[in-house]
Design brief:
By secondary structure, the chain is mainly α. It has one domain. 50% of the residues lie in helices and 0% in strands. The protein is built from 3 helices and no strands. The chain has helices at residues 16-23, 27-40, 54-67. The chain starts with 15 loop residues before the first helix and ends in a 5-residue tail after the last helix. The relative contact order is 0.08.
Amino acid sequence: MISRVVSVSTGKLYGLSKVCRVWGIARSSVYHERQTVEKAGLRQRPGPLGPCTDETLVNKIREVIAESPFHG
C-alpha cells in the first residue's frame, strides 16, 4: 500500500498526500485505482507468487510429511 511507507529517520508513516506529492501523482488516481482493483476482484494476497497454487503446495507438503520416516 502506498501510504504504508515508513520514514527511516522518524519511524512514522508517510501520508498518502506526501507520497503522491513526491511521486507527482494525484491522490484521486490512487483512490480510483484502488477502487477499480477491489471492484474487479483482482486484489491478491501479499507476497510473491510461487510456481504453483496454494492448494497444490499444501498437497505436496502433505505428501512429503506422509512419506517421512519421522513422526512426532
